[in-house]
Amino acid sequence: MKNLDDLLSEGVRGRRVLVRADLNVPLDGDRITDDGRVRASLPTIEKLTGAGARVVVTAHLGRPKGEPDAKFSLAPVAARLGELLGADVALAGDVVGESAKSAVATQADGSVVLLENVRFDARETSKDDAERGALADELAALAGDGAAFVSDGFGVVHRKQASVYDIAKRLPGYAGGLVLSEVEVLRTLTGDPKRPYAVVLGGSKVSDKLGVIQALLPKVDKLLIGGGMAYTFLAAKGHSVGKSLLQQDQVESTCKLLEEHGDKLVLPVDVVVADRFAADAESRVVDADAIPADWMGLDIGPRSVELFAGILAGARTVFWNGPAGVFEYPAFAEGTRGIAQAIVDSGSFSVVGGGDSAAAVRSLGLPEDGFTHISTGGGASLEYLEGKELPGVSVLEEGS
């Protein structure tokens, strides 16, 4: 597929370039709590503005219901993006309406306009091809003659949406540096990775990751399970898990996985339990098969960290997606910290699969450069590893 360098070699000065970025950052009110995705978008935008392009950025934030909602406005993102770029970023008041048209019409070479949350328009996520196509038509018209499209929001390439997929059928499409690097890294994981190859999966629900677990087990040497999903596996082994997160409807599936791949699956041997879900809850460490009936597991314990770290120390390739516990609460962050530190210490080819794992790396103060790659798209990464087609990537390949 054509990439950003191909576009730059054609010349972009004075041309509008519509960039689909992933700026879906976590907010506390109007304060960005983790600007990792904004920073990840900078290299592509800076290359384009530096070459004189008139950059029009489209992105989403949260899950508005297809209409404007002030709490999902991209205003905080526009402000942060401007700070990082060292230049004003004009925020249009709508997606393709009069405000957007006015902002784009008055653009200077090398400037950036950010369109308001594209999911304020219900057509963005519509299942109807014609509805999505109509929005893509308006985005293409907004960009005007001679425009190009750069897909740089890896976190959304697994979605068949107007600003991700349909627009690439209307404008010449190019992969931004972020999408290109993400795909190259994932191809390494699915190709012939150096062994031993270890995968660490955490997060809350087995159902969210059952597909990728089934796809990865034949390919990996060890698959380590943490987070809330570990309790469904422990229940499948016949252990009582108290009030821990449990997906009862997934116990049969996890039983089968343990029967077929028990030599590869590694579960916690101890856990940190709490009397309630709160930062100041009473907590203690218990064996994984001795969780009290009225307590809940919120992290893996120190012996589990030691067990996991020992496996990771010998790995040459590691993929990690999902925290080991409720890392947002200091009392339940040590499992996630221990896993992350073990990956850094291993010196392996290591990929952090976006989402909460990437946020944990930053919030716990771990060195980002200690990992080979920190993905910006957890869901997209998992779907790629599961073997699913990513519409936002395939459409670029078709157009090349």
Can you describe this structure?
With 400 residues, the chain is an alpha/beta fold. Helices cover 38% and strands 16% of the residues. The chain has helices at 4-10, 36-50, 75-85, 98-105, 129-143, 177-190, 206-216, 230-236, 251-261, 302-313, 334-346, 355-363, 378-386, 391-398, and strands at 16-20, 27-28, 31-32, 54-58, 89-91, 112-114, 148-151, 173-175, 197-201, 222-225, 265-266, 270-274, 283-287, 296-300, 317-321, 349-352, 373-374. The model has no long low-confidence stretch (mean pLDDT 95).
Please write out the topology:
Layout: H1 4-10, E1 16-20, E2 27-28, E3 31-32, H2 36-50, E4 54-58, H3 75-85, E5 89-91, H4 98-105, E6 112-114, H5 129-143, E7 148-151, E8 173-175, H6 177-190, E9 197-201, H7 206-216, E10 222-225, H8 230-236, H9 251-261, E11 265-266, E12 270-274, E13 283-287, E14 296-300, H10 302-313, E15 317-321, H11 334-346, E16 349-352, H12 355-363, E17 373-374, H13 378-386, H14 391-398
Parallel strand pairs: 1-4, 1-7, 4-6, 5-6, 7-8, 9-10, 9-15, 10-11, 15-16, 16-17
Antiparallel strand pairs: 2-3, 12-13, 12-14
Helix pairs in contact: 2-3, 7-13, 8-9, 10-11
Give structural attributes.
single chain, alpha/beta, 6-stranded parallel beta sheet
Q: What is the assembly state of the chains in this entry?
A: single chain
Which strands sit side by side, in order, in the main sheet? Answer: 5-6-4-1-7-8
Distance between the termini: 5 Å
What share of the residues lie within helices? 25-40%
3D shape: elongated
Radius of gyration: 22 Å
User: How many helices?
Assistant: 14
Q: Tell me about the biggest sheet?
A: 6 strands, parallel
The number of strands is 17
Query: How much beta, percentage-wise?
Result: 15-25%
What structural category arises from helix and sheet content? alpha/beta
Taking all residues together, what is the mean pLDDT? 95
- Which consecutive residue ranges, at least 5 long each, have pLDDT under 50? none
